[in-house]
Design brief:
Blueprint (H helix, E strand, L loop, with lengths): L18 E3 L2 E3 L37 E4 L2 E4 L4 E10 L12 E7 L2 E5 L7 E10 L5 E7 L6 E6 L11 H6 L1 E5 L6 E9 L2
Antiparallel strand pairs: 1-2, 3-4, 5-8, 5-12, 6-7, 6-9, 9-10, 11-12
Length: about 190
């Protein structure tokens, strides 16, 4: 946290010389303040301004993201999902510090498990690849010598897990507590090609 390109620390803290912009630590000299309305989309997708280039997602249509300086439909990309922080209500499990991991499900199928982390959990160096056409689900667990304890599920949907909303993918970061207020997350959805 606090490093360039990473989520801002508590209270919007970043390393010296960086600013907290849209909950990410950014070098302010790299932000183009003149492009806010100069390059609007034409509504057909994929065209930011006359040259098709973009600097940020607001230069693209609502179903697109700015990736490699061009607007791409969200449906044409994959996303590397990295869990920068997962914090349960308590980091003690009765026998000492809690050890955490998560299971990743896509399209209702188990894909992979993370390594075991201390608490709060950090897996920023273990991204999973997400296809935005499929449902998304992260199940968080506390590792235990006898039987692992289920903690919570992160997903979008009222009854069953659904696709990650385009607005979340455009924002790139999912931060803050869950709806219960018990669990806190910092998760990055970085666009990529597979």
């Amino acid at each position: 946290l606090g490093h360039e390109g990473c989520p801002c620390g508590q209270g919007g803290a970043c390393l010296v010389g960086l600013q907290c912009i849209s909950n990410a630590c950014i070098d302010p000299s790299t932000v183009d303040s003149t492009s806010s309305s100069a390059s609007a989309t034409d509504g057909s997708g994929g065209s930011a301004g006359d040259d098709g280039l973009c600097m940020k997602n607001s230069d693209c249509a609502s179903d697109e993201v700015c990736y490699s300086d061009a607007c791409f439909l969200i449906d044409d990309l994959y996303f590397e999902v990295a869990v920068y922080s997962f914090e349960p209500p308590s980091c003690a499990d009765g026998w000492g510090d809690a050890e955490l991991y998560f299971d990743f499900f896509q399209g209702g199928e188990f894909i992979s498990s993370s390594s075991i982390s201390g608490c709060p959990g950090e897996w920023w160096d273990e991204p999973v690849h997400y296809d935005p056409h499929l449902s998304f689900q992260l199940d968080f667990w506390e590792s235990d010598a006898f039987d692992d304890d289920f903690l919570t599920t992160l997903c979008w949907g009222n009854v069953v897990c659904e696709e990650v909303p385009d607005a979340v993918l455009r924002d790139r970061w999912w931060t803050g507590p869950d709806s219960s207020g018990d669990f806190s997350y910092v998760i990055e959805f970085a666009p990529t090609f597979l």
